Records
---
Amino acid sequence: MKTMKVLLEDHEIPRQWYNIQADLPTPMRPPLHPATGKPVGPEDLAPIFPMNLIEQEVSTERWIDIPEEVLEKYLIWRPTPLCRARNFEKLLNAPVKIYYKMEGNSPAGSHKPNTAIPQAYYNKIAGIKHLSTETGAGQWGSALSMACQMFGLGCRVFMVKVSYEQKPYRRMMMNVWGAECIPSPSNLTEAGRNVLAEHPDSPGSLGIAISEAIEDAIAHPQAKYSLGSVLNHVMLHQTIIGLEAQKQMAKIGVYPDVVMGCAGGGSNFAGISLPYVRDKIHGKDVKIVGAEPTSCPTLTRGPFAYDFGDLAKKTPLLPMHTLGHDYVPAPIHAGGLRYHGMAPIVSHLVMDNLVEARAYHQIDTFEAGVMWARSEGFIPAPETCHVIAAVVDEARRAKEEGKEKVILFNWSGHGMVDLASYDAYLTGKLIPYEMPDEEIARALRAIEGFPKP
């Protein structure tokens, strides 16, 4: 019988996260304090994060131990399977072997609990009682809601309004886990009220929702803010994906030629790729590709610059590829992969030519997602569809080159609560949307005069 899944026993789960900062050929640029222009220190982050997470954020240690309390929660669904997509391979009829890390079988249906659980844990032991956060398509908000329930924390989620309206079932998931979900922009914060005063019908954005969540956290004692992507400690927690994949591929004596993930804020792409970036730094011949939407082309069309992580300028200035902190994405099929900035770690790796980025139209991504569902059975989330489109692209390249390739990618979330998006695709309501040049130029005016990395 042909191998379809490579499994790890519970005792084989990685017990440490991997920190890429220990192996970078060039050091990362530091985040800057917007008032002074000087590098941000731990004390500057203390109002919104507990010190134990701040220590991880600034750490350059290669390996960070995973607490036993976090491992206990991980073992509810981890280690996740490494699967061979044999039926998809037949459909593509190309000289490729396709493996994927199945991150859609977590209780929340995506990779996001990999960082939600440790973030809830570290806040809990720091004495925090409540977390505030934002979410786009809802994967992060639902994951943090679940994690807060596991550790007895309150949770308030500001969900980008267009996604709140398009994806009611993600809101219901948050409510089941005891969280409060609020459409953003809202009247609960000054940041939200300011947006609504100028744009009453605003569809919202992650930049706006982040501003609301930070303001909400700062306003309440014993509350902190939690972020599901972008920051270094989030990338760190997600490396359990790639570390498991390396163990699993070693079991069958296979090493990938190409490693791929979808890229919005950077967490699931970093999770699968960072352990392989380390291999590449140390001489391995491996191509590493992040797939993003043409509607929000942060890596492929945004400059590498210092910018705020939110609309109201409550964050430090982060060195990242950006479309401008006041960017509001087009209210198309989904709110996922629609953040104006990319994780500084991922941005740094692009600048050092260790990873590359490709952008795909939403029609191409849904076409790939439907091909996947009709061959492999599982219906992928729209975000996952982006990397599947990249896999299809890479398979076609292999066919044109007449070169055999092993492809590994991160199947980062299922689409069972995203079926309205599939309905829009199947009924011809979606169009190939690409962010106009003039909109990029307008958005980037927001960072004129900022420090240069």
---
Amino acid sequence: MLRRGFIKLATVTLTAAAALVVPAGAQQTASGEAGTVQATAAQIQHLLSGNTIKGSWSGADYTQYFDQSGFTVYIEAGRPPSRGKWRVREDTDQYDSWWENTGWTPYTVMMTNDGYAWVNRGELEPFEILEGKQADF
């Protein structure tokens, strides 16, 4: 993925919200954020599959759609859409993205008190879930 930024939580279906409730006694991330826990592979698959996210990655706003087939489109503000692939790895509980210039790259998804976030160099990049395909490409 050409991700430069991931975003805040906005809208999640009731089923997705119920499936991704942050458990009591959640652990801390590498950056020391209280109330965060790593999402499992099954939770990540449910959260992303067929949905769109919005966020900011290292300060750049983006929208990304995750097709159920493993196709993804990343749209950064002011740039043309980038097409790639995505998958979830059960052995590591991580999301992987594939882009022509980088190949497969793993990312950790965290559930926080405020929603969801990617881990980017030890920092949390919050993102918002939008139900279904909500990106023009």
---
Amino acid sequence: MKHLSIWLAGALALAWQTGVLFAADPPVNGEVPKVEGKAIPDSQPIPGAPMVPSIAGACANGACDHGCDRGRGGLIGGAAIYWIQPYFENNPAFLVSSTTQTGPGGTARTVTDRTDIRHQMDVAPQLWLGYIGDDGLGARIRWWYFRQGTEQTQSFAAATPGTEVFIVSAPAQGFSAFTDNDTPATMTVTSKLELQVWDVEAIQDVQLGCWNLLATGGLRLAHLNQRYNAFVNGNSGTSANPIQATVLSGHSFSGLGPVVALESRRPIGNSGLSLYGLIRGAVLFGSAKQNATDIFTGFGATEVNTGSDHRDRVLPVGELELGVEYGQAMGSSRVFGQVALVGQQWWGAGSASRGDPIYSLGAPNTNGSVVDSDLGFLGVAFRLGVNY
């Protein structure tokens, strides 16, 4: 009995010492830790335990950190240069009809060629300024402007036996300038395209994992102005009294309507680069008008005729951009640059003359039909912006 009591006392002492040693170790597999021999209640936080990461914290894992940290609120602004070219579905400058005695058996053969107004790449500026809060809600105003003028000239020498050339301008309100080459003749066509756009938008920055989305909605105010002028000098029969024919046309649209857009950015690792995309749509409600004047001088007299057209219009607009962005933090601000391929479509915007020449027995007719065709833009945008 005496020896058994000694062994029991030793076993109890060993068990107590083992419990103290395990209590002093860090928690393993969910075991409740102890501090100075006292267990910490389950309702209290475990000292040194990591916090559950937020969405932004989860993005700041080295894979997409710069695209997931919106930062504090503040002013946003920037500028852009578009290098774009306008494309018209229908925008004729003039038609040329050449007749020669080269048909079967020496009969007359007529070939008609249509020449459209030629446009080229040009620069269009854009500016924007706004404010965005810590919660991603804000507002901004955007302005975009494009203007381009063109000039094309077609000249003909006096006709030779067996050949004849007839040239007619695009019809504007039913007026056309035309001439042939009985004597040396020249037709010059000038045009102008001017477009100014204002967007006033509410904006909301949304973070979805590593995707940064900017949803916008508001009002768009747009003014579209186009001009078409045709000048003819020739076809008199006598050089002392040349015939001059002129057609002057102005076509404009002003409209207001809703505009919505969605911008997206997806960072590429920690490089500072992001994929960038934008889709924007607007519906403009407004009025359009066209004024045209026909001036004919020849045979000692001058005749002037005018015409006009006023109408209500609904003009849908669509825009798409795809490109890359590079951003860099500078103090408490973020500076970024973008390069994107841009495309725009203005459905039913019409051309400067709004006319489509027609043919009669293979030759151009001085009459024509009215067409409000589509206008598009294609090019590249270069942007530089800052978020303060």
---
Amino acid sequence: MDTWLATTIRGFLDEKYGGKVPGVRRVSADIKAACDGETISHGHIHNILSGEADNLTDRTRALLARFFDKPLTAFLPPEQTDDTVQALAARFATLDEKQVAAIKQAIEIVTRGH
């Protein structure tokens, strides 16, 4: 059973490990090393890759985004990503110049570390 999530994570693993993806225990350990001691259990990684887990908690999504150096939206189902972008665009359209400037400043602060 292949899900969008399993396919996405497998692709990111292939990219990260140059096509030589280690086992789930090693991936879990590598996530821990990259995320200041926080990790995703090897069992959960197995469930994601086998298609048994087809959604993520916010915490798991954040750890994967950090580990793979991808935006959080890379770990949302395609239809959810489209809805999120449209909702944000609609919300931003209602903001005044100072609010938009504050958001831009916050984005700059957050992205400086990457």
